[in-house]
């Protein structure tokens, strides 16, 4: 009986391990105390966790970023060390940044940028190793790890947040490449699929529409890492209709699992050249027995595939391990810089 209870509780424990660390270890929970921050002396820095559960990036400039809280509808300005330097409305945070950059003589952004999105129940810290490696290789003038509240919104609203971030980049930024891990790939894919309207669906001829649409002329190339391009079997099995699990994982959890057929109608073929990186063992077992066939422990290798890809590559890595893999990093660099 003891073993049976353990087996039944395992899915809930897995989900809790994904979501609760953000709430326990991060000072991200909104409350009345946040309303007084604007009145504090701005010379008193407030260290944050960089946005884990409720915050998402909507503005980036030379290492600084402005985040939006989807619960309180407030904004904060963070420096490149995730220290809060202002709190209030978007315009107040932007004005404060302009004042700081004027005092420091910061030059305006220009050139190329790579934007990296983390996966479901994760945060931008998971993509830091990849970002640091790209910076060391000087693949782009700027490399930015975008935070977004993956368990608090729908894929469409995540894509709208990404769209806002891109629109806020200055015109001197000439090229924008994207890298998405897991759910982050679907967020970018939605952004690159078509208009961000509530009732929009992909036309029947997805490939033809792809050639007529682009959200921004500066969009370059796109790399998907472990993307659940055909839904996530494990999300259906672990979340299902359980009310507690659905509460913890939010709308995106439903969209990856039980509501996949509806959200799939809004996910087209990205309008730019894209490459897919899958993880697996190259056999019929994979990393998890919960997923049929070869898989990376979270997504089946077959489920990562998507028509129109320039390249599909399989590496012997797990779902999160690909964010630490040197061969994967090398493949990303070759594709983003040379399309190889």
Characterise this structure.
35% of the residues lie in helices and 19% in strands. It has 340 residues and is of the alpha/beta class. It has a six-stranded parallel sheet with strand order 7-6-8-9-10-11, sandwiched between helices. It has a five-stranded antiparallel sheet with strand order 1-5-4-3-2. Helix 1 crosses helix 8 (243-256) and helix 4 packs across helix 5. The chain is globular and about 60 Å long. The chain starts with a helix and ends with a helix. Residues 1-37 have low confidence and may be disordered.
Helix-strand layout with pairing:
Blueprint: H1 2-25, E1 46-47, E2 55-61, E3 64-69, E4 75-78, E5 83-88, H2 90-104, E6 111-117, H3 128-137, E7 142-146, H4 155-167, E8 173-181, H5 183-191, H6 206-210, E9 219-225, H7 233-238, H8 243-256, H9 260-264, E10 274-279, H10 301-304, E11 311-315, H11 326-338
């Amino acid at each position: 009986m003891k073993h049976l209870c353990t087996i039944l509780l395992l899915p809930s424990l897995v989900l809790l391990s994904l979501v609760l660390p953000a709430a326990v270890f991060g000072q991200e929970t909104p409350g009345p105390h946040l309303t007084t921050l604007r009145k504090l002396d701005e010379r008193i820095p407030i260290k944050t966790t960089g946005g884990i559960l409720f915050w998402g990036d909507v503005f980036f400039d030379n290492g600084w970023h402005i985040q939006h809280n989807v619960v309180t509808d407030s904004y904060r300005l963070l420096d490149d060390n995730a220290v809060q330097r202002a709190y209030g409305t978007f315009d107040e945070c932007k004005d404060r940044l302009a004042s700081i950059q004027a005092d420091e003589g910061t030059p305006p952004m220009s050139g190329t940028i790579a934007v990296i999105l983390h996966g479901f129940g994760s945060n931008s810290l998971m993509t830091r190793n990849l970002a640091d490696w790209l910076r060391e290789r000087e693949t782009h003038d700027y490399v930015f790890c975008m935070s977004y509240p993956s368990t608090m919104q729908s894929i469409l609203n995540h894509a709208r947040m990404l769209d806002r971030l891109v629109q806020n980049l200055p015109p001197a930024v000439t090229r924008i490449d994207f890298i998405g891990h897991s759910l982050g790939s679907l967020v970018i894919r939605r952004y690159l699929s078509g208009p961000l309207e509530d009732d929009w669906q992909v036309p029947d001829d997805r490939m033809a529409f792809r050639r007529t649409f682009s959200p921004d002329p500066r969009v370059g190339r796109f790399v998907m890492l472990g993307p659940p391009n055909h839904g996530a079997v494990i999300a259906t099995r672990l979340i299902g209709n359980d009310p507690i699990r659905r509460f913890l994982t939010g709308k995106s959890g439903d969209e990856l699992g039980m509501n996949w057929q509806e959200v799939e109608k809004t996910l087209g073929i990205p309008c730019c050249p894209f490459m897919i990186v899958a993880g697996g063992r190259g056999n019929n077992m994979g990393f998890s027995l919960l997923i049929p066939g070869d898989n990376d422990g979270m997504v089946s290798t077959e489920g990562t595939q998507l028509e129109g890809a320039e390249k599909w590559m399989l590496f012997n890595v797990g779902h999160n391990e690909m964010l630490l893999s040197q061969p994967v990093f090398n493949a990303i660099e070759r594709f983003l810089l040379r399309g190889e």
